[in-house]
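Lab manual, section 2.4: Encoding a predicted structure.

Procedure: take the sequence of the chain (91 residues), apply the prediction step described in section 2.3, and record the output as structure tokens. A sample record is shown.
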Amino acid sequence: MPLPPTPTAFKRPEHLPWKPFSRAIDLANRLNVRPSIETLKTLEMAEMEKERDAALQKDFEDIETVHEEFATLDLESVPGGSRNQGGKPSE
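Recorded output:
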């Protein structure tokens, strides 16, 4: 008895909790490639790397913003504030 034909497009459920996997399936379908485990894993890893890079970029931007805001802060105008770096109150 022969096996049923392999579908060329994988229908993904509407609400997959794992977004990189969902995007990997969508990309495989758009590229019209067979969604094998190996193909989906490769595409999913690329999607996860894109997510990680975007998160790291946002973190760097947040750190840069805080650093810029701190650099413009006038510590002399803050009660108890001082530009003394040693942590001791200035005399």
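Check your result against the sample. The two ends are 92 Å apart (CA to CA).
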